[in-house]
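Work Package 3 (structural annotation) set out to generate three-dimensional models for the target panel prioritized at the project kickoff. During this period the team completed the workflow that converts sequence records into discrete structure tokens, so that structures can be stored uniformly alongside our sequence database. As a representative example, we reproduce one entry of 241 residues exactly as it appears in the project archive.
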Amino acid sequence: MPPLASPTSPTPAQAHPLQGDTKARLLEAFVLLFAERGFHATSMRAVTQMAGTSVSAAHYHFGSKEDLLRQALRRRSELLNARRFEYLDRAEAAEFEGNGRVRAILEAFILPLFELRPEVSQQQNPQRNLAARLYVDPPEVVKKIRQEVFAAVTSRFRESLANAIEGADPERVELALELSLGVMVHSISGRLSWPDQTTDPEGSKRKELVGRLVAFAAAGVLAVVEGEVEAPLLSAGRAGE
């Protein structure tokens, strides 16, 4: 993983000189601004200014801001989801003891994010905010497009987890996967403290941290799917107030 950016990192436009043709620059500019400002505050004019083109060119390539978000997410998730499916195929084909398959499935879901998105370790990288924008406080249009883009991945992993846990309740599996996703979003959106290049030049501590993240998610999934449902301890005596 690359070293952390300095506290005096330049602005997104300076730190990320946009390359490629007009369409590619528009997609990248939208991702940078969306991650920083959110959907409604990201105007087409600001996107085109960062991309070095015109609003008419943006409308030519993308019919609307919604379509720009849709295609930007598809572009960024294509390789990620292909890697996820590759690892999931391996997990489903391998032999495991105990709950090893559950851990392998979650590793297939989580690990590619850290392999293909090295910027998640850079504290000042604006793209770290992308996950938070997509999941934490999205407008309905963002939620709809996110679900559309990741629908195939979510469905496949949900089914795989249900098959890996004998007698699993589908509703519990869905809840467990959503909670695991929350842990992952927290980890990649700047809320988790990562060892930097100075203290971890070989990346071994970061690899260990990813491993612990997978182990935590696996334990949580099993607790949700297999565990008995209990009333909250601290509020049990306050029922009916």
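The chain has two domains: 11-63, 77-227.
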